[in-house]
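From the pipeline queue, job 12 of 40. The input is one protein chain; the requested action is below.

Action: predict structure.
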Amino acid sequence: MAHPELIRVYDGTPVPYSEGQLRLDVKPARAPSGRLPDDFLAQYNCYRPRMLAEPQTDDLSVAIINETPELIDSVWSWTWRVEDVSLTLKQAKMAMTRWIDGLTAQIEGEYPRVVQKGWEGEEAMARAHKAGTATQEQADMLAADAAAKGRTPTEHADRIVEKADRFRAIMLDTRRLWLATDKALEEVSDPADYPGILRAAKAQAAPIAQAYGLSP
């Protein structure tokens, strides 16, 4: 709802008002032409409230201008309140899914999809090399990939395994967090609890993400 530009204060209570109404109310006196100056308005307890800075919100809340201005430091001001968004169970689950996708995308986004499709075979090749069981095809591919990166086959295999283990650890931690959060969402009866559950999950994930060098 749009807030009025002008208010008039009656016995300390502000009510919506307008310059047009003031011009009528002051007759037979003549109001100045054009936009009425603040000092003229103040003679009739009329004010243009200032707009305070909008508070910060997250993706689960919105900032709303309060319906009635407040007198702050002798200045009438439009204030704000922050309210959680209304979510259905499906929307709450989708919000969690989007957040998790954004987290893992910090890793996946560094690589083309065609490269991601080969991760499983690449890991198997690297582990086979380290175990001394690589086929000739795997050995040839590892050697070519390693040369492209300026590494020895063993150095390249070590890097592949290191990254694979790291991604698997992130995947497991994320999956367990998702399962626990999904359970919590399904167990509550009041949809108003959904934003709080999602925020708690994000707070729980923050140290996990930081441990893996990700932005929570």
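Job complete. The chain has a mean pLDDT of 92.
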